[in-house]
C-alpha cells in the first residue's frame, strides 16, 4: 500500500484543460492509421511503456523507458 501512495504522490497534477485537450486528441486519432504520437515522455514512470507508433495496418509498436 505504501508503494501505491508513493506512486500517487509522485504524479504530476495538470490543469483540467490540459486533460480535456488530451482526451480530444485521443478522440480525433481514434482508429487513425499511420499515427506517431508527439509529446513528452517526462510524465511516464521509469520502466513504463508508451506508444511509439501505429502503422497503416493498425499495428501498434510500444517502447519502454529504462528503469531507474
UniProtKB/TrEMBL annotation:
<protein>
    <recommendedName>
        <fullName>Hydroxymethylglutaryl-coenzyme A synthase C-terminal domain-containing protein</fullName>
    </recommendedName>
</protein>
<dbReference type="Pfam" id="PF08540">
    <property type="entry name" value="HMG_CoA_synt_C"/>
</dbReference>
<dbReference type="GO" id="GO:0006084">
    <property type="term" value="P:acetyl-CoA metabolic process"/>
</dbReference>
<dbReference type="GO" id="GO:0006696">
    <property type="term" value="P:ergosterol biosynthetic process"/>
</dbReference>
<feature type="domain" description="Hydroxymethylglutaryl-coenzyme A synthase C-terminal">
    <location>
        <begin position="2"/>
        <end position="64"/>
    </location>
</feature>
<dbReference type="InterPro" id="IPR016039">
    <property type="entry name" value="Thiolase-like"/>
</dbReference>
<dbReference type="InterPro" id="IPR013746">
    <property type="entry name" value="HMG_CoA_synt_C_dom"/>
</dbReference>
<dbReference type="GO" id="GO:0010142">
    <property type="term" value="P:farnesyl diphosphate biosynthetic process, mevalonate pathway"/>
</dbReference>
<dbReference type="GO" id="GO:0004421">
    <property type="term" value="F:hydroxymethylglutaryl-CoA synthase activity"/>
</dbReference>
<keyword id="KW-0808">Transferase</keyword>
